[in-house]
Amino acid sequence: EVQLVESGGGLVQPGGSLRLSCAASGFTFSTYAMGWVRQAPGKGLEWVSVISASGGSTFYADSVKGRFTVSRDNSENTLYLQMDGLRVEDTAVYYCAKDHGEPNYFDSWGQGTLVTVSS
Amino acid sequence: EIVLTQSPATLSLSPGERATLSCRASQSISSHLGWYQQKPGQAPRLLIYHASNRATGIPARFSGSGSGTDFTLTISSLEPEDFVIYYCQQRSNWPLTFGQGTRLEIK
């Protein structure tokens, strides 16, 4: 059974940094692209980032480009999202998600971790 | 950026009825569209990928259709647990984008 467990969320001041982690199990992590999707309180889904299976290719939403960095450690089955220069509008639940066999659809999701950016 | 517009924003139906949810893309995305279901307090769940393919474990009452700019998610006979929020998502172009969602509520 696929399991994705996010951690690292919390309260941070504007301009601060956080690193989210997503521990994966139940599938061959190194063979799947992975993504991050966020959801502001009471709002819809917003795609944030995707990283290829090898980690050699990364893609970002314009809203986070230059501030967020996605990475992965295939030896540890862990996905990361380094978030710098956080803004109030980055407040959201952040989900990690596993790519489907068809690229860029997400067929398994974690439970999410809440990031709150506030002074 | 490809904008996905879902309609209606809210759909009021009764259990056992047929639901038809729409997703329109701002430009052609071929069949590169997925549908997700999100229950309160839970992560989204993939229902349909590539416009018309049911994801693993998804009941047969869920079906998807369409191509180009107009897509439909149909739920043939609504069960009580289906009254939640549905999102479409395109993968044709970067950035990936989601629609704003359709809330299915009990009439």
A few lines on this structure:
The complex is a heterodimer of chains A (119) and B (107). Chain A is an all-beta fold and 119 residues long.
Task: Explain what this protein looks like in three dimensions.
The complex is a heterodimer of chains A (119) and B (107). Chain A is mainly beta and 119 residues long. Chain A has strands spanning 3-7, 10-12, 18-25, 34-39, 45-51, 58-60, 68-73, 78-83, 92-99, 106-109, 113-117. In chain A, the strands form 2 sheets. In chain A, strands 2, 4, 5, 6, 9, 10 and 11 form a 7-stranded mixed sheet that branches. Chain A has a 4-stranded antiparallel sheet with strand order 1-3-8-7, with no helix packed on it. In chain A, strand 9 and strand 10 (106-109) form a beta hairpin. Chain B has 107 residues and is mainly β. Chain B is 0% helix and 50% strand. In chain B, strands 2, 4, 5, 6, 9, 10 and 11 form a 7-stranded mixed sheet that branches. In chain B, strands 1-3-8-7 form a 4-stranded antiparallel sheet, with no helix packed on it. The chains are: A mainly beta (119), B mainly beta (107). Chains A and B meet through strand 5 and strand 10 of A and strand 4, strand 5 and strand 10 of B.
Whole-Å distance between the termini of chain B? 35 Å
**Shape category of chain B:** globular
Q: How many beta strands in the DSSP annotation of chain A?
A: 11
Beta-strand portion of chain A reads over 45%
Q: What's the number of helices of chain B?
A: 0
Number of helices of chain A: 0
* Whole-number mean pLDDT of chain B: 97
Helix content of chain A: under 10%
Radius of gyration of chain A: 13 Å
Largest sheet of chain B: 7 strands, mixed
**Chain oligomer state:** heterodimer
Roughly what is the average pLDDT of chain A, rounded to an integer?
A: 97
Largest interface: A-B, 23 and 24 residues
CA distance, first residue to last residue of chain A:
40 Å
Give the helix/strand layout.
The complex is a heterodimer of chains A (119) and B (107).
Chain A: E1 3-7, E2 10-12, E3 18-25, E4 34-39, E5 45-51, E6 58-60, E7 68-73, E8 78-83, E9 92-99, E10 106-109, E11 113-117
Parallel strand pairs in A: 2-11
Antiparallel strand pairs in A: 1-3, 3-8, 4-5, 4-9, 5-6, 7-8, 9-10, 9-11
Chain B: E1 4-7, E2 10-13, E3 19-25, E4 33-38, E5 45-49, E6 53-54, E7 62-67, E8 70-75, E9 85-90, E10 97-98, E11 102-106
Parallel strand pairs in B: 2-11
Antiparallel strand pairs in B: 1-3, 3-8, 4-5, 4-9, 5-6, 7-8, 9-10, 9-11
